[in-house]
Amino acid sequence: MVHAIAVVGAGPVGSAAAYHLAQRRVPGVVRVDGSAVRGAFRQSGGSVSWHRPDPERSRAIEETARFIRSEVASGAPIRMRDEPYLYLDTGELVDGINIEADDLVDHLRRSTDGVADLDVGEVRAVEPGDGSHRVVGTDGEVEAEVVLLALGVANVGLSPGLTGEVEKRQLLVLDLPVTPSQQRLPHIITRLGEGFVYVFIKEIDGRLRFVVGQEDLVEDEDHASPVDYLPQLFGAGLAERFPFLAGASTAQVRWGSDWAGKEPHVHEPAPGLISVNCGSAVRSCIAVGRAAADAVLTAQRAAATSAPT
Ligand SMILES: Cc1cc2nc3c(=O)[nH]c(=O)nc-3n(C[C@H](O)[C@H](O)[C@H](O)COP(=O)(O)OP(=O)(O)OC[C@H]3O[C@@H](n4cnc5c(N)ncnc54)[C@H](O)[C@@H]3O)c2cc1C
């Protein structure tokens, strides 16, 4: 059977694209995921702030945040906390939220009436068919006239011509208890050494925890396993900057590989084959998923126009 549209990858951006297609009542959409494959979103810190220097990026994040707030207000079971961002070095305090990315993805998946689900195991190849594309997985395959690839970093190997740097991302979850008067701590970002550190509070496994991340401070190219670099952060002055973190140890490392480029991309490497990546962030997935759904419908119209009559 050849489906009209296959959305391949049901992480934030694939789920958002399927959601937008379902909202527009587009028929013949099938969503394909390898349920055993871990998406980056399962490790996400869930931080969402739309105050960015790039206006386009800022708009995409704000659209996503507005969507989440409005769904939560209508009763959607998405865990969300208001969590402003404090840029310590400039004294700026701006709006932000922290969400549970799994909840957002589950909610999007549930809100897609008319979209069928297929699990073909781990997708290993996308092959050209006759006016279609065949998605080949370890446990089966699916063929569709238009295929949207939304497999996160796995897009890099499967989308023809797509090259891009993949980077490791890590968050250190600390073992310190969060006291009631610390619970409203904003997401704090500050320079440290040659880079940045950020500290925020997140509910993990039913408990509020301090979470620490860094950029450009510790080199970590170990894509195979987590690395506890808290001692290096203390060595660089973390406890002097945040005295309340002194004496902490790492209780858990959330980590994964992600697309290094912060620019979202939606492109069509072959007619009817579209590749989307949300620019290293759950926080822009609703806007990027909408752009991907638009591209899918454009490709579908183009295929209908060029089909022999
Ligand atoms: C440690 C860490 C912290 C982060 N923190 C934040 C944060 O605070 N805020 C933020 O906005 N972003 C954060 N991110 C980034 C964010 O999680 C990713 O950019 C985002 O999840 C990418 O979404 P995606 O839909 O493109 O891909 P993914 O989230 O990777 O989802 C891909 C989907 O495709 C499926 N899949 C993948 N490969 C295959 C395959 N070969 N076959 C079949 N199925 C497959 C997976 O099962 C998954 O459902 C963080 C990432 C990491 C790793």
Structural commentary:
The protein is of the alpha/beta class and 309 residues long. The protein has two domains: 2-66 and 99-164 and 261-306, FAD/NAD(P)-binding domain, CATH 3.50.50; 167-259, 2-Layer Sandwich (Alpha-Beta Plaits). Helix content is 25%, strand content 34%. It has seven helices and 18 strands. The strands form three sheets. Strands 1, 2, 8, 9, 10, 11, 17 and 18 form an eight-stranded mixed β-sheet that branches. A seven-stranded mixed β-sheet has the order 6-5-13-14-15-12-16, with no helix packed on it. The radius of gyration is 20 Å and the shape is elongated. The mean pLDDT is 93. The structure holds flavin-adenine dinucleotide (FAD). Flavin-adenine dinucleotide binds next to α1, β12 and β16.
Q: What brief labels describe this structure?
A:
FAD/NAD(P)-binding domain; binds flavin-adenine dinucleotide; 309 residues; eight-stranded mixed beta sheet; elongated; 2 domains
Entry summary:
With 309 residues, the chain is α/β, with parallel strands linked by helices. It has helices spanning 12-23, 55-73, 101-110, 155-158, 230-235, 238-241, 285-306; strands at residues 2-8, 29-32, 47-48, 80-82, 85-87, 92-94, 97-99, 116-118, 123-128, 133-137, 140-149, 166-174, 187-192, 195-204, 207-215, 250-259, 265-270, 273-277. Strands 1, 2, 8, 9, 10, 11, 17 and 18 form an 8-stranded mixed β-sheet that branches. Strands 6-5-13-14-15-12-16 form a 7-stranded mixed β-sheet, with no helix packed on it.
